[in-house]
Amino acid sequence: MVNSDKTISIKRTTLTSLSLPTLPFDLIPEILSRLPVKSLLQFRCVCKSWKSLISDPKFANKHLTLSTTHTIHCISYRDNVHVLLKSYSLDSVLTNITETQFPSSNGKVFLVGSCNGMLFLAAKDLLVFQLWNPSIRKFKELPPPIIEPQQFPLMYGFGYDPISDNYKVMVMFCFGHLFHDGWIVEVMKLQVKVHTLGTDSWKNVLDFPFVFASAQGGQYASGSINWLLFKGTKRFIASFDLGIECYREVLLPDDSGKVDKNKLSLSVLRDCLCMISGEDVWVMKEYGNKESWTKLFTISYMLDPRASSYSYIRAECVLDEQVLLTYEEDKRRQHISYDYKNDTSKFFEFENVPKVCVESLISPCF
C-alpha cells in the first residue's frame, strides 16, 4: 500500500527542484522596456510589482528611448459628427487598420502634430485643444485660453521642453490677416500663448517677431518648434525654443544653386530638421548650424504616372531605408513609401493628412 503523504511530499520536492530560476530584479525592466506597448498593457496584470513598474513615468521614459514601433494616424469622420482615429501599421500599410472612437468631440478636429507618442489635436473654430496617446488610450483636454474677441488661432506647435522636463503647447493668435486665392498675403500682429502640461492656464510670451505672408505647419526638433515662412521671394525658418521661450532664425543651405526656393517643405527626419527642395532631401545634422545641412538623397522615382507635376513634398518619417512622403499634385494630397536605397516607390491614399507617431507609455495626464 502506497503512503499518500509520502507521495505528496515527493511530488512537492520534484516540483521545487524543477521550478524555473527567478530573474534578477534589475533585469526585468531591461527586458520589459523593449516590448511593444500592447504587450506591456497586458503585463500590468501579471503582478503588483510589474503594474507599478510599467506605470512608473521613469519606466515610460526608458521605454520611449528604446521604442521602434511607429504608427500612421489619420482623422476621419462618421456622419460628420463622430471622430475616428484610423491607425495604420507601417509594416503593412492599408492592410492592418484599426479604428478608435475619439474620446471627446465638440466638432471637427485636425491633427496638428505629435511628440513622443502623444498627438496634438485642435478644433480651432471652438478653441478646443487636446492631447491624446492612442497607444494607452489616455486623453486630456487643455483648459481654454483667454483671448480677445478679434483673435483667432493661426499657427500651432507642440513638443518636449528638455529644460523643464515637460511638454508645452503653443498657439499663435492672429489679430488680422488678408487672404488671396487661399494664401495668406499679409499677417498683422501675432500674439503667442503657451500652455505647460500639468498647469491649468496659458501664459503670454514674446510676440512673434517675424513678418511673413504664409507659413507651413510647425515642426518639433531639438527642443524647438520650427516653421518655414514665406515673404515675397524670401524663404526662411523661424524657430521658438520651448526651454528659454525665445525666437531665432535658422538659416537654409547656401543659395548657390543648391536649393529650389520655389518648392520647399519642412519636416523632421530622425529627430533632425529636414527640408525638401524640389526632389532633394536635406537634413540639418547639428541643429542651428547652417554648415551642417547635408543632402541625404534625391527622390528620383517620384512622380505618379497619373499626374504630371506636384506642388510640394513633405517627409513624414524615415525608418531604415524607407521614407514616408506626403506630396500634392493637381490639388490632391497623395502619399508614397519610398526606398531611397533601391529607388523604388509604393503609392497609396489616406482619407486625410497622416501623422506618424512612435508608440509610447507617455501620458498626457500630468
Could you please describe the fold and organization of this structure?
This protein has 366 residues and is mainly β. The chain has five helices and 27 strands. The relative contact order is 0.13.
Proportion of residues in β-strands: 35-45%
Number of strands: 27
- Low-confidence runs: 6-18
Shape category: globular
Report mean pLDDT, rounded to a whole number. 79
Question: What are the defining features of this structure?
Answer:
5 helices; 4-stranded antiparallel β-sheet; single chain; mainly beta; globular; 366 residues
Describe the structure concisely:
The chain has helices at 4-18, 27-32, 37-43, 48-54, 57-66; strands spanning 70-78, 82-89, 97-101, 110-115, 118-123, 128-133, 138-141, 152-161, 166-174, 177-180, 183-187, 190-196, 203-205, 214-215, 219-221, 224-231, 234-241, 246-250, 264-269, 272-277, 280-284, 293-298, 312-319, 322-329, 332-339, 344-348, 355-358.
Topology:
Blueprint: H1 4-18, H2 27-32, H3 37-43, H4 48-54, H5 57-66, E1 70-78, E2 82-89, E3 97-101, E4 110-115, E5 118-123, E6 128-133, E7 138-141, E8 152-161, E9 166-174, E10 177-180, E11 183-187, E12 190-196, E13 203-205, E14 214-215, E15 219-221, E16 224-231, E17 234-241, E18 246-250, E19 264-269, E20 272-277, E21 280-284, E22 293-298, E23 312-319, E24 322-329, E25 332-339, E26 344-348, E27 355-358
Antiparallel strand pairs: 1-2, 1-27, 2-3, 4-5, 5-6, 6-7, 8-9, 9-12, 10-11, 12-13, 14-16, 15-16, 16-17, 17-18, 19-20, 20-21, 21-22, 23-24, 24-25, 25-26
